[in-house]
Amino acid sequence: MPAGIYLNVAVSGLLTGLVYGLMALGLSVIFGVVRVVNFAHGEMMTIAMYLAILLFAAFKLDPLLMMVPIAAVLFALGYTMQRGLINPFINRPEHSQFILLVAVAIIMVNALLIAFGPDARGIQTRYAYDSFLLGPLIVDATKLYAGAAAVATTAALFAFFRFTLTGKAIRACADNYTGALVVGLDVKRLYALTFGLGSACVGAAGSMMVLLVDTTPPLGPAYTLLAFVVVITGGLGSMPGALLGGVLIGVTEALGGLLFTPSAKSMFAFAILVLVLLFRPQGILGKRDSP
Amino acid sequence: MIARLTEGVSQRGLMLLAALLAALLALPLAVNDYLITVLILILYFAYVGQAWNIMMGFAGQLSLGHALYVGLGAYAAAALYVHFGVSPWIGLWLSMAVAAVAGAVIGFLAFRFGVGGVYFAILTIAFAEFARIGFDHWSWLGGSAGFFLPVANYAKNDIVSLRGSPTMFYYVVLGMTVAGFILCHVLMRSRIGYYWLAIRESPEAAQALGIDIFRYKMLAVVISAAMTSLGGVLFAFHYNNLFPEQIFHISRSIELILGPIIGGIGTLVGPIVGAFLLTALAETLGEIMLLAGIDVPGIKQVFYGVCLLIVVVFLPDGVWPPLSRRLGLDDAKAKRREGSK
């Protein structure tokens, strides 16, 4: 096979990886601050994907433009979940939180199954078959737009955490819970806000992902796993790590699928995960955890 | 021997256990084949839940990839039987060995490299997923098309090759559940059990007291894995078909741990109570849906999820601890254990 193919596949994997990264970023932000692992993450992603499909089917609205309202809906969902359901579980043991979110995930997957049925649904945009020729590269337009949107969303989130007062307050909660309480931060509200933001990331990622794959309800658990793999590879709680992990996993999957069989592609993602967990358990860009 | 086994169990508890066992032994005389298969499922979940509980409930290591050991056990015994005609009673030793080695490898890697908590849980998922995809591409074992055992002849019970009626499987799985229960009871009251509890409550303190925490955590994984693999053997010979997509799937791992968590983690009766409640719930929901004429895929699972949610919100320790208090079964020791959580 000529080298050009590898390059093309790698670039395509990289662009998909950016969307993975954005999805995983949501998980990472939630874990980094609230210290709860969102086991319903991929399921929330599929909710966003179905929202995009509904909007497209009903009003022909482009998912990339609908990113903001969909993210807003997911924000509201995440905020309410944290406020109503997860907050009492903050200090409960991990397995207890796990079951809570697994229950939420089961409800979400099956509610989607009831609403939309088991068949795969996709979106046909005007630019679905467009591509750009960049030297030896043929870049799929959809993937390029999705990747660019993922980068833009991530940049916005970085800016929020870096420069706004609320963003700084959230980081303060993550750094020192007691300290945040002492200086009078409304930790409960900030936690809910964080969960909302993490969910908004998933919402945005979902409206991009819907352009790249066909949606079925069982995608939810698969994406939950994928988000774990990405986030642990990059470093749980590290924002640049999530993006790096996403790109790494995206490229690995794409190349693995090309070199071996596509059905074995996620095996390579898991192999990377195992290696990272063994030799750098805190992730590539993660800091050593001090609980 | 018996006296040692029953040491520390209240008279009342013993009587209730004996009554339960007698009821379970007599049940096949009174119920139809459908209920027998439901009971097999309940006891299967009670057994594997008990095995998982050794790791999580006793030693405090959260494994979310126990489907790996079920799958390995199932495939090992089934492969020996189908390809070489080896009886499952011999095959189960291979199953246990394979699962124990897998557990040891995961445990060794995780505990040597200091992988704990959520990270450990995800490592266990990763290995299970790895196996799922690997077995999907292993054609000697059928790959993704599935691996099939010759279907049992219901008329004749062949206990040596585990081919027979549901009633036979019922007694086999009942025996496994009772044996697992006794094993866990013995472990819990042995030196190892106390070391595990110490490690669960505070690894640092346990280490300071001179407990080799690496060794005892390894022991927990290996025992739990080997025990779980027997569940896989039963699964293979009862259902006669194995698909990597199903048996290694994460939803299987989750299914398996719901029982002990709902029943009460770290308790002996919890996994059994949890398995009863959850399977009965799922089956009842199915029946209600059938009677109501609602045939929407997924609706049963939504109710299931809602029930799960309610239990975990309102009974953080699971169903058994408050229930045992109500039945007047808890001794001072149990109280102390709960207080320390």
Number of domains of chain B: 1
**How many strand elements of chain A?**
2
Secondary-structure content class of chain B: mainly alpha
Number of structural units classed as domains of chain A: 1
The chain pair with the largest interface is: A-B, 46 and 47 residues
Order of helices and strands of chain B: HHHHHHEHHHHEHHHHHH
How much helicity do the residues of chain B have?
Answer: over 70%
Fill in the CATH topology of chain A. Answer: ABC transporter involved in vitamin B12 uptake, BtuC
CATH architectural category of chain A:
Orthogonal Bundle
| Rg value of chain B | 20 Å
Instruction: Please state roughly what percent of the residues of chain A sit in beta strands, choosing from under 5%, 5-15%, 15-25%, 25-35%, 35-45% or over 45%.
Output: under 5%
Beta content of chain B comes to under 5%
**CATH level 1 name of chain A:** Mainly Alpha
Major sheet size, sense and barrel closure of chain A:
2 strands, antiparallel
Q: What value does the Rg of chain A take, in angstroms?
A: 19 Å
Unreliable runs of chain B: 332-341
Fold and architecture overview:
- The complex is a heterodimer of chains A (291) and B (341).
- Chain A has helices at residues 3-34, 41-59, 67-86, 94-116, 141-163, 165-175, 177-182, 187-212, 219-234, 239-259, 265-279; strands spanning 131-134, 137-140.
- Chain A has 291 residues and is mostly helical.
- Chain A has one domain (3-279): ABC transporter involved in vitamin B12 uptake, BtuC, CATH 1.10.3470.
- Chain A has a two-stranded antiparallel sheet with strand order 1-2.
- In chain A, a hairpin with a 2-residue loop joins strand 1 (131-134) and strand 2.
- The longest helix of chain A is centred in the first third of the chain and has 32 residues, at 3-34.
- Chain A is globular.
- Chain B is mainly alpha-helical.
- Chain B has one domain.
- Helix content of chain B is 74%, strand content 1%.
- In chain B, strands 1-2 form a two-stranded antiparallel ribbon.
- Chain B is globular.
- The model of chain B is unreliable at 332-341 (pLDDT under 50).
